[in-house]
Input
Amino acid sequence: MTQKRKDVLVVGFALFAMFFGAGNLIFPPALGQGAGVQLVPAVLGFLLTGVGLPLLGIIAVSKSGGGLESLASKTNKKFGKFLTCAAILTLGPLVAIPRTSATTYEMAIVPFFPNFNPILFSAIYFIIVLVFVLRPSSLIDNIGKVLTPILLLTMITIITKGVFQPQGMLTTTGINSPFSNGFSEGYQTMDAMVATILGGIILGAIRAKGYTKTKEISEITVQAGLIAAVGLTIIYGGLAYLGATAGDLPMDISRSALIIQITNNLLGTLGQGLLGVAVGIACLTTAIGITATAGEFFSKSSSGKLSYKAAAITTALVSMGISNLGVDRIISLAEPILLILYPIIIVLVALTFLDKYVKSAAVYKSAVYCTLGISVLDVIGSFIIPIPIITPIIQGLPLTTQGLGWILPAILTGMTFYARDQYINHTRKKVEYIPN
Output
């Protein structure tokens, strides 16, 4: 095997570990259980946003040479900072970090210590997080390197047994829009934001291996991304199948309880215990990494007025408070936020691939702001209060039932401004070449 292929494998596994968060395990089984016989379209929708979009995000970052702020700054620098701040808040204290604590409590503590106080647990959890965040150590990284393979091996074992010895048959659940449900559920992995915010770390690792040419870096990134995508597809698809064949488990069971019960049915108490320990440590390493990232970001954004230590402690305290809402409640609160942020990220990633042809900031602004406006109005009408006249129009847009109501207006507005710019440039050239 050549050195380049080895490097591709190493980066591919690193990407897989970046996306394969323990918290993501709870989504595919619940999706599969709700989809039943309509498993395939539900999984396809989930894979588009849970795997395909992060892959495109990593490639877009390699093309632009920067992260989300760099992508969004093509619209407006202040908007780039605002969007990055919103994404960091979502990845940090508002959703992702609290979810790691809540997931650990529900999957690693409750099954064995059902009466353990959740507030006390969250306090202990975030004290441990801060110990590592404020006093960096390689210990937790080494633990993560050991536990991620254990988690992956556990998942493969569960999936393999569940495929060859299914607990039940695919049933009709009456779900109306399996594809759009899967598409929206894929947002909850938040891996597209992870890709655009932390993608720079991957690019730095590739450059550190001696690759300097942009084309070569992009080639390695694409190949590594495909390796990660294949791995995620197998794991997510397998877990969704386990959920769809979960037998007589109640439909209203929580996401965490569902994967715990499936594991217990297939591997018994030992498998459940192994899963709990692996998930707990994996969540802890994720929380430490994101808390440190959030601390650095907010300290840098304030030009040092807010110290790294103060930012990290504040992030941990806010996360601790939200974590006690429970996994399902955190997920439901995250949904409207992600329904606003994800469409914008999708548009920015798409425009990055068209950057060769799109030279005007007006195209970026029109497409992004149009997407933002429609997404905000849709969320207000769906989650807060319907707006007379406007909400029916928004909900009547093509592809709205698939969660893509914003896509046609974004394309049309972008194309309109692109045509305008082409016309202006053509007119200017004609004027410049008029003979005296």
Observations:
- Residues 150 and 278 are 7 Å apart (CA to CA).
- Residues 357-436 form one domain.
- The mean pLDDT is 88.
- The two ends are 66 Å apart (CA to CA).
